[in-house]
Amino acid sequence: MNKYGLGVNYTAQKSEFGLFAPDMKKVSLVLYEDAGEYDEEGNVASHCGGRELPMKKTQDDIWRICVEEDLEQTCYMYKLTDETGREQYARDPYATAVTANGHRSVVLDLAKTDPEGFSQYKHVDNGSHTDAVVYELHVRDFSMDESVPFVHRGKFLAFTEKGLKTPGGHAAGIDSLKELGITHVQFQPIYDYAVVNELRVDEPGYQGQKFNWGYDPHNYNVPEGAYATDVIHPQARIKECKEMIMALHKAGIGVIMDVVFNHTFSIEDGPFGHIAPDYYYRKKPDGTYSDGAACGNEVATERKMVRAYIKDSLKYWVEEYGIDGFRFDLMGLIDVDTMQEITDELRSECKSDIILYGEPWQAGGSVLAEEKQTLKGAQKDRGFGIFNDNIRDALKGSTRGRDGAFVQGRKGFEKEIAEGVCGSIHSIASQPTEVVNYAGAHDDLNLWDKVITTLGLRTKEGFLNMEQGKLKRGNFEQAIAKATLHQGITSENVWENKAVRDCVLANSIVLTAQGIAFIHAGDEILRSKYGDANSFISPDAINKLQWQDKDRFYPVFQYYQKLITLRKKHPAFRMADRKEIMQHLEILTQKNGLVSFQITEHANGDEWKNIFVVYNGNDTSQQIVLPLNGTWELAIELGAEEKQQNKFAGEEITIAGTSMMIWYQK
Q: Which of 284, 435, 438, 528 reaches 20 to 30 Å from 353, CA-CA?
């Protein structure tokens, strides 16, 4: 049980309940025999009629009660009476199980939810954080493409299905993730979120919302029911989420969970709104709620019991589900002291090598003092990391605009690329473990769509004009059918295409830079979202991974696979200490659309003595001289099928336009 005895501590003989509600005049535990009566929208309008048991308030403002019965699978809520006499019902914010759509909390014996063999595959060894190759993925996106015969389409259990093939006979599903070689999957939120009606999400004719990214926290400590095969029985979603995690662990893939502690879906219907809104949410001096998340509220992470809640939630996911790391949404709104305590306690109490990183920004101005916000650079020497938007924008330009950057051939970004190659240790980081290098993520235009936009090819690709999940004009199905994504590109001519080379060069730089490497799901098969820059509630047709693209662009997949294998095999690309980087990595060129560097003297214990890497952002081929002494061998060249002959130091080599080469000496 957590430090303050909050939530429910269950045994077959008794259950102890605790709720922090400092300003309430009266609190009762309410027990129910069922989940309540649902309306057409999946809501339970009334919570009257339960068995009410008065709770007692202790000196620490926590209301407590012990019920000496076996309450397993009993639904419960709290009935709160404030100083004005107003009565409201609230879910338990510490609930670990809920009814459909998260309306009532449920007492469960969690030990019964462990799949057979779960303890054997509870975690993976993260190693040094710079060893990680993170693959950002949405649970539903993974298995909604009907060209692959998933049994559990859109569900946690899709990750347990082996032996699946694309129409062209290539590995699909979890087998493809393993084949690609990524070390971790970073899931977009898998806790229980609002908006999607879990009771009707699988109805073919249902017109309500079936898809959401999940950044609408509803019940922080419970898996999302829309990803379960059974939402009526509360234990199903828990067991199936564990089965997914276990399947990934068995495949040698760690699980990083995207968490949203900067805001909740709403105040009134959120986990804290009926309990203590003036405590859990930040307010402006005029009494209105601060909205640094641009979602209507922001959570007051700096307050003692809010900070305790966040830490308790994270520890619970690590200990109960085997989560290997966390990605923090809008981490700028989480005060830096809370982030430090999270880091220290998770490492000392739960998993010493746990991976922690987040977005070092906020979205709309906050009452939290700027020096307390976890912004870019605030993570220095604190043990957690940040997304490196410096290298992101230097690679391919702003996240939504038509501008380009290094990979599109624009000059002036070479120094930023070079700094990113060094793990940004001369600017925003003290150590390479503190930066996550990436070219794109779920937000905004994905990598392919950004490059297509930059090249002025949106119309040619048949991109859709989407807003808030809807097509602005015309018929959505017809527009999808008419789209001509990747027009004219085949597996035979794929490397001749400018957009392909731009995208692949961007991630080639990510995968050869010092720091944590991160790619968005589908980058390895040129995934498109039809130009939708904000697909958070868009239909599956836009969001799903289209597995047949692996058949179409298998040479691209193979290149990613080869490059990830090279990174994993050669620790010189994964140095974890700034001193090593400063001793072994030297930038040689950073101008005129070229960046080159050498890594020397068996850096980080690498079998290769010296490594030379060159990126060419120009559309045309360029000449560059090999450094040092002796003979160089070519390890990899973007898009090249035949290996070049050995070259000698001081000799000029030709690097193709929009390309990368890695040479080595043993």
A: 438
